[in-house]
Amino acid sequence: MNGRPEQFSAQPNELLVERLRDGLGLTGTKVGCDTGQCGTCVVRLDGRSVKSCLVLTASAAGSEVATIEGETTRGGDLTGLQEALRQEHGTQCGFCTPGMVMALGELVESTAGGEAPTEPEIREWLTGNLCRCTGYHSVVRGVQRACAAARAEAPAGAAGPAESAAVAASGAAAQEV
Amino acid sequence: MTAVTGEAPAAGGGVLGRPLDSREDPQLLRGEATYVADIDLPGTAHMAILGSPVAHARILSIETKAAEQLPGVLKVATAADFTDVMPLPCIWIPGGVESHFPPHPYGLPGARPVLTGDTVRHVGDPIVVVVAETPRQAAAALAAIAVEYEPLPVVTRADEALAEGAPQLHEAVPGNLNAYWTCGDKDRTDAAIAAAEVTVELDLVNQRTINSPIEPRGAVGDYDAATGEYTLYASTQGPHNHRFLLSALVLGIPFNKLRVIAPTVGGSFGTKGYLYPDMALVLLLSKALGRPVKWVDTRTGLMNSTVQGRDHRQHVTLAGTRDGRITAVRCTSYANLGAYPSTIGPGVATALMGRSISGMYDIDAAFCEVYAAFTNTVPLGAQRGSGRAEAAFLMERLVDRYAGEIGMDPAAVRRSNLVPKEKFPYDNGLGWTYDSGNYLLNFDRAIELSGYADMPARKAEARTRGKRLGVGLATYVAICGVGPSTRMSQEGMLGGTWESANIRVHPTGEVTVIVGSASTGQSHGTVFAQVAADELGIDPDTVQVLEGDTQKAPYGQGTYGSRSYSMAAPAVALTARKIKNKLIRAGAVFLGVPEDKVVYEGGRVHEEGNEENGKTFAELAMALWYGWGLPAEIEPALDETTHFDPPDFNYPFGTHVAVVEIDELTGETEVVSYTAVDDAGHIGNPKIVLGQIEGSITHGLGQALMEAAVYDEQGLLVSSDLTRYALPRAADVPFFTLDKTVTPSPHNPLGAKGAGEIATVPPAAAVVNAVVDALSDLGVQHIDMPVTPEKVWRRLRGEAQ
Ligand code: FES
Ligand code: FES
After folding, report:
1. How far apart are CA B694 and CA B688, in angstroms?
2. Complex ipTM
3. Quick check: A122 and B730 CB within 8 A?
4. B38 at the A interface (CB within 8 A)?
5. Cβ A30–B696 below 8 Å, yes or no?
6. Eight-class DSSP state of A157
7. What is the C-alpha to C-alpha distance for residues A93 and B258, in angstroms, rounded to an integer?
8. What is the 3-state secondary structure (H, E, C) of B590-629?
9. CA–CA distance, A99 with B649 (Å, rounded to integer)
10. Residue with the larger pLDDT of the pair A175 and B797
11. What is the pLDDT of residue B101?
């Protein structure tokens, strides 16, 4: 669990998200629905992002589980992805955010050394995560920014120029009237 | 009431209007924020609510014995346990505050009790509560409760509920009619329509939708027997309102014995400003059990209990000349209030919608009538853009129909009917007086930015790919900044609608701003710090912002109707000015010069013409803290408060252009580009407003394309979870093209207009106009929302609506 061994016994019908939140006090993982649709509960299981409301605790035995709490220390420096999302204001109420960060981490990592994902690819990746506040635009821009930064840091040859989001944001010239 | 001069915002420190990063974001990004479900008080017990599985029935018996025996169960309670608790009040009753008083001092007849004892009126109507040691035990106990029902006939549509012989919901409400409400001039409008060269009519269904904040609601009640004080933690956008309503009107406990705390709230969009039974129940049960009691809703529970939105059936008429001059608009609407009057639902369905129908147009005659009816559905409430979105939809659909009828370009018709700049303040004849606007500038900007002139070429190109391209326009005016307390009392609002701010300057020069507002994701901490810092000429990082707790801010109203930046922020600015004035007065003493020779500049006072003789903000703060050497008329310390009640609402507006492509084979509608130019006056933090605009448009597109609360004939909510209620996902929307115009409102010292939800108002109209445009050569004149592929596919094959 976030790099530390945890030992406990679980009921056969216990969900991983219940164990995380109620059993281990890791409340960064959220519950937004009861049908596996919203993605607020996404954690990483052996590196792959999964919806922890659809995983039985027992079936996760022996796996590595990573939650949002494992990304940084409390109050600590943001990861590259978190920092990119911060710069694009990719979170508003924040309820969808931990699940988004956990789901997107896999995408950003997987592109660090190769091609940056296209905008449709990012949107496709995000379809498992609902956000009602942002409309996803700032999140997509955040991922583009994070991928560009990850590629810039990656070994030479992999990096290209940062894609800029094709949006005329409200920074555009305002007319005083 | 605070006087407002309408002067331009102070240049101050210059941090206002800048896209500062949100200071709330890092905590949210690390998953460290505490939402109500994360609160874990020692000794907490868990509550579950049994909601009715049927839409309308008399309760014959409730058997709870088996549930009481189950492991971990602490308490099972029914309506019989709460006979001394008042029903949940409705505080917005169309027709003025007089109607609040006898015979129903606590709101409308039909008000919802905390638990239903005799008759259930919608699926999810709460009947029994269980408290147990764990959430699972509480949920399990619900299954052991046996309720015997005698089914009653069901009605789920407002127009049907008003028909002769319809099932009756409340004995005290004959014919299910909650309110017949009108605005505008009926005779004049009827005459204009009768005399018109051209009239067009539409029958519209503005379907019921579910706001679906991603965080379901929750509540924790904590009664302290030692002090007799109650604390409620709840996912609320109005902790102060909830304190007032719960203490004074529902529980009958002293106001000062109830503290309401909104922790981090995971989105609301209107729905979390309402009073719900669970809020009262956790408090009552905490007292009964002597332990904190916690309740967290599920998604399906939310869909069956949290207020829903829109839901009008309308017959609308527009009249005009052959050459494109609109002369009259008329609307008859059947509004579905659901089973009970929610906290302010009746006001949303009437005034917020009806008074807005003429939008950005200068129309001589307008009239709207609303029949607001009870039905066996979840109560109606606000929903991002509430009322105003319904109004924009009907008007903008009508304008397109009219343009089609007279063979004019829809943009040309709109352009020539906009309220001209010289006419402000503009009385729209429906009860609103628009404060300020430059509609033409805004409209032309959107037309230009969207590449409207290129659409014929783009349509032809799309055809070569098997796509039908359509373009749709929508303009809107959104009444925001609710509002002037007296004006709202005329609308029927029971309660003041001012907003408060307190500023304390600490001896070391750091500042605490405390507001009555409560964020549901709008980065208030960042923006209010900017406002105070700008006024005081200090570093925003030294400004702390507190809100969301009735013990921190004694009074306030909360966040709704896009009012935080145009109500709470002006209160902050005016309070900062009081602080500044006091610093000038004290500065005169410390600098040894007359007051009119003291200059406040860049967070410092100095003698006019002599910068050397000065004191910094921090030095003055310390001096005032000590209080040494102050004359009698200057009190020590720096602590000021303002209750801001504006002279009138503010009226943001804008123009949106949707371009869609319809697949000839599948009927699928894709939004391929979307341009929005909104005017929210002066903006405090463009980065934060940008996020709200983008989210709002996406929300509006949801109603147009996929969202619908569907009830079957038995009154069962079929779309009761996220597998059956579609919300827009990332792949459903493109990046938008956004711009703004800036027309300051004269009604607050920041020149601000509402922003948070305004961009939800026009997208549904823009998209449906675009879809109808794409199908117009098939004779399609209207298509109901949501515009699903199936509906379009049928129209492509010539089937009727
Ligand atoms: S809580 Fe797991 S997907 Fe919604
Ligand atoms: S930020 Fe609120 S749901 Fe995504």
Report:
1. 10
2. 0.95
3. yes
4. yes
5. no
6. T
7. 26
8. HHCCCHHHEEEECCEEEECCEEEEEEEHHHHHHHHHHCCC
9. 39
10. B797
11. 45
Q: Which of A34, A127, A133 sits opposite B730 (nearest CB)?
A: A127
Q: In B492-630, which residue ranges form alpha helices assigned H by DSSP?
A: 524-536, 569-591, 617-626
Average pLDDT, chain B: 94
Report A:145-164 residues touching B (Cβ under 8 A): none
Summarize the confidence of residues B788-800 as an average pLDDT: 94
Tell me which of A37, A81, A86, A95 to substitute to probe the interface with B (most B C-beta atoms closer than 10 Å). A95
DSSP helix/strand/coil, A124: helix
Would strands B45-51 and B126-132 be described as parallel, antiparallel, or unpaired? antiparallel
Distance (Å, rounded) from C-alpha B486 to C-alpha B500? 16
Q: Smallest CA–CA separation between A129 and chain B, in Å?
A: 8
Binning chain A into helix, strand and coil, the percentages to the nearest 5 are: 40, 10, 55
Query: CB A85 to CB B22 under 8 A?
Result: no
d(CA B4, CA B7): 8
Residue with token string 């010069």: B593
In this structure, chain B runs to a length of 801
Rounded to 5, what percent of chain B is helix, strand, coil?
35, 25, 40
Residue A167: its pLDDT value, please?
A: 35
Our answer on whether the CB atom of A100 is closer than 6 Å to any ligand 1 atom is no
List, in sequence order, the alpha helices (H) in B409-557: 410-417, 439-449, 455-463, 485-491, 524-536
How far is the alpha carbon of B524 from chain A, nearest alpha carbon, in Å?
11
Residues 6+ apart with CB under 8 A from B393: B204, B206, B764, B765, B768
Q: How far apart are CA A169 and CA B736, in angstroms?
A: 8
How far, in Å, from the CA of A134 to the mean position of ligand 2?
6
H or E segment to which residue B63 belongs: strand B57-63
CA nearest to A130 within chain B: B729
Q: What is the mean pLDDT of residues B479-486?
A: 90
User: Chain B neighbours among A 85-114 (CB < 8 Å)?
Assistant: 85-87, 89, 91-98, 101
Q: Give A132's contacts in chain B (Cβ within 8 Å).
A: 211-214, 267, 269, 695, 699, 727
B425, B432 contact by CB (below 8 A): no
Task: Please judge whether A135 and B690 are an interchain contact, meaning their C-beta atoms are less than 8 angstroms apart.
Answer: no
Q: If you take atom 3 of ligand 1, which residue's CA is the nearest one? A: A36
* A133 alpha carbon, closest ligand: 2
> Which amino acid is present at B450?
S
- With a CB cutoff of 8 Å and minimum separation 6, the contacts of B383 are B209, B211, B269, B270, B271, B307, B308, B309, B310, B389
Could you tell me which residues come within 8 angstroms of residue B297 by beta carbon, excluding any fewer than 6 positions away?
B216, B217, B218, B278, B305, B306
Q: Which residue has the higher pLDDT, B3 or B110?
A: B110
Structure tokens at B470: 């359509």
What whole-number distance in Å separates Cα of residue B345 and Cα of residue B354?
A: 14
Closest residue in A to B30 (Cα–Cα): A68
